Automatic annotation (TrEMBL):
EC number: 1.8.4.11, 1.8.4.12
Coiled-coil regions listed: none
Name of this chain's protein: Multifunctional fusion protein
UniProt-listed PROSITE patterns: MSRB (PS51790)
UniProt keyword annotations, A-Z: Multifunctional enzyme, Oxidoreductase
GO biological process, one term: response to oxidative stress
Molecular function terms, GO-annotated: peptide-methionine (R)-S-oxide reductase activity; peptide-methionine (S)-S-oxide reductase activity
Record carries keyword Oxidoreductase: yes
Organism: Amphritea japonica ATCC BAA-1530
Similarity comment: In the N-terminal section; belongs to the MsrA Met sulfoxide reductase family.
Amino acid sequence: MTRMYLATNDNFLNQLFIRFLQQNLLEILEMKMKIAAALLLLTGVSVVTVIAGPVSNSDQVQRTDLQQQGLKVATFAGGCFWCTESGFEKLPGVKEAISGYAGGQKENPTYGEVSSGVTGHTEVVQVYYDPQVITYEGLLQSLWRQMDPTDGKGSFVDRGTQYRPAVFYHNEQQRGLAEQSMATLAASGRYSKPLATELTKLTVFYPAEDYHQDYYKRNPIRYKYYRFNSGRDQYLEKTWGDQLHPDFTTFGRGQKANPATHVSLSERFQAFKKPSDNELRQTLTDLQYQVTQQDSTERAYQNEFWNEKREGIYVDIVSGEPLFSSKDKFKSGTGWPSFSRPISSASISEHTDTKFFMTRTEVRSQHADSHLGHLFNDGPQPTGLRYCINSASLRFIPREEMANEGYAELLSQLNE
């Protein structure tokens, strides 16, 4: 990793600073950065590489202690790990974020080797979090709001595959959640380019040198100067606007059933309380909000599940109530997910829709009251029905994840 620091005439700077030696260190550093910034504009700079010392054994001890506390762990790459470490450590429920390297071939790589781009590693942060406070989905939503997921060749001012974005999953549950989150992000229309974020299983994580740990705390002035000039914050503000800082602890809440409970699915969702409009705006993408809350329709063939062929169930994006099964999904040629029946007729409600000078039957979810789509009488036998549903209203749960997500009692329906 190469960081741009100002290689100016130190003697010249020292002469300017000699008069300020009686002031505190913070004031001196601030002035030095201001003068260096001015020299950048007037004379240009050269680039120097900062290489930290060897990795401390304290990192391994720290990680072991964190695991013994019963915390869960996630690993993400979002460009410069100074920035992503800072972003994750500020989240509620995150106990520690450790900068390091993953995704390469060489064992125990040094910072200098990784920054050369030849080892195949990328800069990552390993996040230790309390799942009772923040979910893995919440961490993913924070990741998307920290970096550019469409840039596979670097990250803002830092170029090279050692800065490429990635999600390194630790288990199949994380893989499924990451796939779902990435698919939703890709279908949101937020980006003009396709996602270039890798999704790969974590094999080994190497902590970075001590110098890089908590860099934003140890070197706040240099960190802020680097971050501002990287263009990261400007891009994020433009891309996310007022959705840049939601309550990340709300993501994944209310969508999953608790696998430890023995309450039936029907009883479980009777107690569902719909989030406020403000909460929905924070937790849903623009498209999901427009479809579920404003009765919009997404584009045909340009949605997440129209061609989904895996076994599993489709649940309401807001409440998690089960709606449709892959067993009843069929190819309708319309460009939207189509089903011949719902999992249970009690899970949906039907309403007369007279918009656009026609009369149709609107379909909504029973508990979240989300707009799902419309019902037509041109489906396959034996029902003759076609439930034409917006992907933006749904969350897909693959068969292999159903038990873990609390929908084990519906597994038998996939075999009927």
